[in-house]
Amino acid sequence: NNADEKDKVYKVGVDTTYPPFEFKEGDEYKGIDIDLINTIAKDQGFKIELSPMDFGGIIPAMQAGELDLAIAGMSITDDRKKVVDFSKPYFEAGLSLVVKKNNTEIKTIKDLKGKTVAVKKGTTGATFAQKNAKIEGFKVVQFNDSPSMFQEVSNGNADVLIEDYPVIAYAIAQKDLGLTIVGDRLNGDQYGIAVLKGENKELLDKINKGLQELKKNGKYEEIVNKYLGE
Ligand code: GLN
């Protein structure tokens, strides 16, 4: 009934550490995704509570009924559309190959024979690596979060990592990780906000309306510029 609806607090799955989309500063969660979902919720009059977790746990947690929605730099893919409904796209991304700065050997996935490729569990980067590992003859190692994956290449335990372009470009600009992006983007994709398939049509409508409103009133641009500059 209406009273329940009004008091309902939607649980929002977010990645633990995924700047500029989500990250913790002191006790506070910040980032493009965090600001977007807070602003959408305010605009559409619903309450939310953040549940930060490893990215790979988000869709399983939605399926287990532990989350109502997710905003986590999550790419819209046909595979995921089998289990979640996505909002309209809100950000353009795509995968990049990343190597140690002094590496001149690796430029494309054709250069990965015998190499070790670091990816994050449950991501489009992991799927891309798994699909190409046999064909190109490389080994895949998986991590729970992006910083651990970056670390593995920085310290030379892995040769390459695969990460979303906006995320790795931001990380490299913020801090010298000893890493560099090589070659063209491996694909193009778009981020969407996810709700469990077929069960949250009303919520999804609100999210889409809110997103549209934020694009119209300039708040979307304001949020993105706050983290990425003009
Ligand atoms: N965009 C990628 C995906 O959807 C990575 C997301 C993430 O690591 N938070 O799989």
Automatic annotation (TrEMBL):
Residues 9-230 form the Ionotropic glutamate receptor C-terminal domain. Residues 9-230 form the Solute-binding protein family 3/N-terminal domain. The keyword Lipoprotein applies. Keywords: Lipoprotein, Palmitate, Signal. InterPro entries: Iontro_rcpt_C, Solute-binding_3/MltF_N. It comes from Peribacillus deserti. SMART domains: PBPb, PBPe. This is Polar amino acid transport system substrate-binding protein. Gene3D superfamilies: Periplasmic binding protein-like II (3.40.190.10). It holds the Pfam family SBP_bac_3.
